Amino acid sequence: MRIENIDESILPFLHNHLDLSFFLVLGIGYLIGKIRFGSVSLGSVAGVLFAGLIFGYFGFKISSSAQMIGFSLFIFSVGYQAGPGFVAVLKQDGLKYFALAVVVATTGFLIAAAWAYFLALPPGMSAGLLSGGLTSSPTLAAAQDAVQSGSVTMQEGWSNDQLIKNMSMGYAVTYIFGLVGLIMTVQYLPKLLGIDLSEEAKRFSTSGEESVGLPDNVVLRAYRITNPEVESLSLDELRDKYWDRRSVVKVKRDDAFFPVDENGLKVGDVIEVLGPRRYFAEKVSKIAEEIVPEWTSEDVQDSAQIIVENDAVIGRPLHELAIGRRFGLMLMEIRRKGKRIGYDDNTVLGKNDVITVLGTPHQIEAMGEFMGKVERDGVETDMITLSFGIVIGLLIGTLSVTVGGVSIGLGSAGGLLVSGLFIGFRRSIKPTFGQLPEATRWFLMEFGLLLFMAGVGMRAGSGIIGTLQQNGLTLVIAGICVTIIPILVGYFVGRRFLKISPALIFGAITGAMTSGAALSVVIKEAKSPVPALGYTGTYAFANVLLVIAGSLIMIF
After folding, report:
1. 3-state secondary structure 491-538
2. Phi, psi for residue 253 in degrees, rounded to 5
3. Rounded to whole angstroms, how far apart are CA atoms 504 and 510?
4. Which of 54, 73, 191, 308 has the smallest C-beta neighbourhood within 10 Å, fewest atoms?
5. Model's pTM, two decimal places?
6. Is 98 in the same domain as 38?
């Protein structure tokens, strides 16, 4: 095939197979998103947007119905994910994180509106400028929904399609610069201000304000007892000297397994130990030698969540339940109302607590029958709740009131967000309700967003060259202002008035702009996950506020 004939052969073929073209945009976009500049990659959103622009330039489009499906999946999933954190943050340090999210969103809103006014940008371009500058896809989705739902009073001579095309082009031009500008600002601003994020994170971790724990690397190993000292030690002495009080130990003697009990240990006993890697080096290796285990397929370790429902368990402390001794399972974490809690032997279990355990499938099933219900990670999705949750969100979006001749309502974006927030929060306090496994939630959010972004890119592609020629430089400058000024204002307000720790403030700012890519840069600079605490605080509020901002900038 000759290059000059590409337009006459490949393009018509792709135009006749739009389903193929769509997935081609996703695939190419993901490849583009993996391109790295130093330690930073563009990401899937920027990659798919760029691929969509190329295909849009050649006349490809995606149906508005398909784009709406992607929009619905994405916004609902955002709400579902933010639900538990949204309520938790409200109860804790909600006021300061809410204030910071408001400051960032309001600053970006005002700057975008001011640039649009002074540059006399075409209708709809301000929404693209705001969403691209803040790198916020939900803002763009809400702005487009405000147009499609009829909440926006059209200027004479402009149609819905023209407004949506304008905001898509504005977003496309400013998003890439917004993403790069945000990442560079949060990377270099601490250095310019003389802040050592690594030291601040260490200081914060030991201050007692918050603590960040990472799950241990848990493995199963087999050993043969070699140290005769163990035969003279009582069970309590064994536990105090050689047990970390968390790992699970089973003893094999005369071809029979049993828990470590008052009989103690003898030289030659074979023990199976389930615990963190460091335990083996610090404890077990002093009394035993590792051997090749004789395991079968039934010994394969699995993890699962068990929901506490049985009255016989509720209100009892962990030391009475003896999970490790009775079931041979290792307790990994306990969540209460969606929040991970610390625990010790005296921790009392409550109704609907979610316990994560590690062990063999038959051991997990036995404990599940004793405590309540087993819920393995990522197995089933509650399709009834998912489907009707989206339906209810869309119905809420149709409700509106008329004030001064202007129709005001949440729109589809707001309705889906409210529905997702409620279901996500409800799920956190009643774990048997509305199950949406993490893998499924990631797919719905990612696929929905990229389906929406492919449509944005394709819609903008046909006019992107003209926009760059007419408003390109000024639009880029305006977008950079929308990106950087809210960061600076947010930092000033957060440190001066809200007294947010330096270890948290930059994570909180990236959360206020809902940028996971920028957060990863902050965490790398801090050499600690501490900044993620600040990100979580503002992220839940920002998801709501930036959706509102997208609607308001089109209405007013």
Report:
1. HHHHHHCCCCCHHHHHHHHHHHCCCHHHHHHHHHHHCCCCHHHHHHHH
2. -140, 130
3. 10
4. 191
5. 0.66
6. yes
